[in-house]
Amino acid sequence: MTRALIIDTDPSPDDAVTFLTALAAPELFELLAVTTVAGNVPLDLTTKNALKALELAGRTDIPVYAGASAPLVRPLITAEYVHGHTGFDGYDLPDPVAKPAAGFAPEAIVEMVMSRPKGTVTICALAPLTNIALAMAREPRLAEHLAEIVIMGGALSEGGNVTPAAEFNIYVDPEAAARVFTSGANLTLIPLDCTHQARTTAARLERLRAKGTKLAEVFYHLLSFNKRFDEQKYGWDGGPLHDPTTLVWLMHPEFFPNGRRVNVTVETGSPDTLGMTIIDWWSVTGKPANALVLRDIDAEGYMTTIIDRLGRL
Ligand code: BDR
Ligand code: CA
């Protein structure tokens, strides 16, 4: 049976790889929609990039709903310094012909989830959690009606990538993240500790390119551009391919050997630690678990899965 899936995202290439990989696994996923939010770049560009990637894959049948153009209470912070001004620098894809679907993403999420049986729709959340928090505010039963939400965000002992304490997706909209982590939804969190192990090394990108398809060639270039920032910052071969970990977790849980159900809270007050995920890995607080946190990944299995699936499109 396929899993009904919504992907909430702010494309950048690693976001796009996630929904394209889902489309390349039709025996596992029914992608209901891609919902976009402001994050890596402003909303008009994240929406455009989602449409461009779907058009490249010949899948304009997948609706793209645009959502929040700013975090719940704070001004938007973007990451052009990583992904370039378009969010998709590295390959000049044509402007999309398709238009976004009519409707506001948080409302579309509520409609898609609540019109299906309880426990049947999964959300992969790859961006600031603004759309998800707004959807939860609109429909208080949403959290318990969902099957689960798999979130790329936060950090445990890895430290932050935008401040010493905070990871980008949580930092951009900490109030939204706090709302989601107190919602009671079935949550899985994949923090930087895990995604920093999963890198687009030169050899892996060559394997992708060797698939010989247009899409593989485009993503070879997008991910090559994308990794230069992280390579310089961390001194690694390759940059982390963060967001597809959410999808591959659903496909191959055996690639994620070190997970614990623990309590996670989000800092929304202190300026120095704003957006930090406080992950009680050792259960020292005695607070009830509200998320499964995945700390490690079989990077080779993960990247091979992505390369193989993208090569089918
Ligand atoms: C997250 O930030 C974005 O730039 C990536 O797409 C990922 O969702 C990593 O911190
Ligand atoms: Ca993202």
Protein architecture, described:
This protein is α/β, with parallel strands linked by helices and 313 residues long. It has one domain (3-310): Inosine-uridine Nucleoside N-ribohydrolase, Chain A (Alpha-Beta Complex). The chain contains 13 helices and ten strands. The chain has an eight-stranded mixed beta sheet with strand order 3-2-1-4-5-6-10-7, with helices on both faces. The chain is globular, with a radius of gyration of 18 Å. The relative contact order is 0.16. The structure holds beta-D-ribofuranose and calcium ion (CA). Residues 12, 14-15, 40, 79, 82, 126-127, 152, 161, 167-169, 242-243 line the site of beta-D-ribofuranose.
